[in-house]
Write a structure and sequence with these properties.
Length: 330
Amino acid sequence: MKKRANLCKDLEVNNTMIRKTNSPNVFNNPNKSGQAMDRRDMLRATGAAVLAASAFPLHWVSAAEKKKQKVLYFSRSAGYEHDVVKLKDGKPSISDRILTELGKRHGFEVVCTKDGRVFDGDLDQYDAIAFYTSGVLTKPNKAKTPPMSAEGKKKLLSAIAAGKGFVGFHAATDSFHSKGPRNQNQTEVDPYIAMLGGEFIVHGAQQEAIIRAASPKFPGVKQFGKVQKIKEEWYAFKNFAKDLHVILIEDNEGMKGDCYQRPPFPATWARTHGKGRVFYTSFGHRDDIWTNPSVQSIIAGGLAWAMGNVKVDVTPNINKATPRASQLKY
């Protein structure tokens, strides 16, 4: 297979190295093994992207302004770095590639970076900001990627409160932990966690879990279906916001591991933060989650809603959908 241009081109903005995702073919880049995708993987991934794109022929609406929408994808790790956000030989990660493919098909641009200085720059150019992060992002990391400044964190939260869309994937809930015992709910949480709506505690071994839909009218849920059993690295959460609109529920029935011996709780949700739209999904640890058509439909739906392209009722339903979500043990 001939080598093609890398998906992410280096683009210097305000002395910040950002990878601009605009390659014509995202699936010729290496997967987690560092080798090119074989034909079967490529067909599965491409087919998944096509299906996710076709899920919104009537529901993905262009922004009122005619300019192309833009999403900033920030994947800096100050804690554990997941394989799906790792650059291999300088080439984009699988999450970079899949998000870019979704952008191509839905008509928005994705800009990828691990450089925290981006938040000191112009955030107005982005219609939504997506996080797949870990740890305290204002601190140094092993990869020596520039950290977010304290002022940059404030700018991010202010931008969201003023109307910017935010999308969190998987480990986004593992950033900026609240003070206090890890295995307890807190009365006061970090401002970032307050914005996001929930906080990671721990996870057990990868296994199948029953995922149930709680918001059938949210974009992408129809394609996902009422219930699925999916293998993933499932997170256990705490500090849920009281105004969550639960989209998908983690059932926990039959799961192995102490952290799952608790009532069902939200696994994917939406909420409004000031004027901003916040979407989070716990999906995203495994490569085959990113290429899963059902999961891609949820991701595309979350992005569409966060950028204001889809109108849907996100009235808080956590007390009805998962009334004992804050109970961390049976």
